[in-house]
Specification:
With about 375 residues, this protein is α+β, with helices and mostly antiparallel strands. It is built from eleven helices and 14 strands.
């Protein structure tokens, strides 16, 4: 087991400089988003890199010639695509004549999914990765370092290393071993059971919903998926340019096709809606979706109910359906904590942020408790 002081730190402008064998050997689980293939596709497709505000600066630690730890790390010139919102911190710091950007971000870009950020089987090396990233921040006089959606274990360790701790919630479907979707419905209150059945019946009477996986995914599906997602961006933000480029999806499918689940809705032979999910070891991760029609409950069917169907059929333990949306709660997705950790170099900003986060964590925990106790769609147990 190497001593932290003996490790050599390097920053890499592309993950290819580290190499797939070295990177993937350090992954502790089957989370698809920390795979070399996924992060490399982000770079090769132009989703991150020059002109995007996400400049790769991946950190590696080596013991001699052997890479023993890595961190997905980016230099950021904005706060977009992170799903942990610090824009108010940036404004406050800039009003005090500070420069908030550039900053460092340890994350998977555009992906609000919990997963490892300090990739090493050795706890000494994991702690050394955090210390090394802080030293990079200090040496380059950057305002801050943000580790978003780490595991709970990493979050606690980062807190021990002086990071400020933040907590939020997402809504996930937990599968205790249901044999079918009807088994899941049987666990719900009578009213919620009726509502979900009606929503599914109405959608399935209007469109044909299909699950597409593995080698059945074609280039045509991926092009159509991009168009659906672009439509969502246009509707919500007035720009039809998603974070993920059109080139990203075929690139990631080159090596992760068997980890992808597309759910498409068809009006006859015409695709009218679609969503992309990624399949982990025991988790299904819902990512992005879009549609070309206005059909009540279509979003719920394509993104939530089909995901539950798939997870039950595959024996997966959980569906993580992304950020936001208390509307997910009434459809069987319960609140779960998610985490981020923040190193802020300047005490003028660090102190007020620390005070704010202490209050915010308490409020999040109270809100989760209320939702779990009072708004759960499941039958009340005596």
């Amino acid at each position: 087991m190497p001593e932290a002081s003996e490790l050599r730190l390097r920053l890499h402008e592309a993950i290819s400089e580290i190499g797939q064998a070295a990177w993937d050997a350090l992954r502790p689980d089957g989370n698809p988003f920390t795979a070399f293939a996924y992060l490399d596709a982000l770079e090769r497709s132009g989703s991150v890199g020059s002109g995007t505000g996400w400049q790769p600066a991946h950190l590696s630690l080596s013991d001699g010639d052997t890479v023993v730890g890595v961190m997905p790390l980016y230099v950021k010139s904005h706060s977009m695509g992170e799903y942990v919102f610090d824009q108010s911190w940036a404004r406050a710091y800039e009003q005090a004549s500070g420069a908030y950007y550039p900053k460092l971000q340890a994350s998977v870009p555009f992906t609000p999914v919990t997963g490892p950020r300090l990739l090493s089987p050795d706890p000494v090396v994991r702690s050394a990765l955090a210390e090394a990233a802080m030293s990079v921040c200090n040496r380059n006089q950057l305002s801050s370092l943000h580790v978003t959606f780490p595991t709970a274990e990493e979050w606690e360790m980062l807190g021990d290393n002086g990071f400020l701790l933040r907590q939020d919630q997402q809504f996930w479907f937990d599968n205790p071993g249901y044999g079918s979707f009807d088994d899941f419905l049987a666990a719900l209150s009578s009213n919620r059971r009726k509502v979900i059945r009606r929503e599914r019946r109405d959608v399935q009477a209007a469109v044909d919903v299909r699950q597409i996986t593995g080698n059945d995914i074609t280039q045509g599906h991926l092009d159509q998926l991009y168009d659906f997602i672009a439509d969502t961006y246009e509707r919500k933000w007035g720009t039809g340019t998603p974070y993920l480029t059109r080139e990203f999806f075929p690139m990631v499918a080159e090596t992760l096709r068997d980890r992808m689940l597309l759910v498409f809705a068809y009006d006859g032979d015409r695709p009218v809606a679609g969503a992309v999910n990624f399949i982990g070891e025991d988790v299904l991760y819902g990512r992005q979706w879009g549609c070309h029609v206005d059909l009540p409950f279509l979003h719920f069917e394509v993104c939530y109910y089909q995901a539950i169907d798939f997870a039950i059929a595959r024996g997966l333990k959980r569906v993580e359906a992304g950020t936001q949306g208390e509307h997910k709660l009434s459809r069987g997705y319960l609140p779960h904590p998610v985490y981020s950790a923040h190193y802020i170099r300047d005490a003028r900003l660090r102190a007020p942020v620390a005070a704010y986060l202490a209050q915010e964590r308490q409020a999040v925990l109270q809100h989760m408790s209320v939702l779990g106790d009072e708004a759960s769609p499941f039958k009340k147990t005596p």
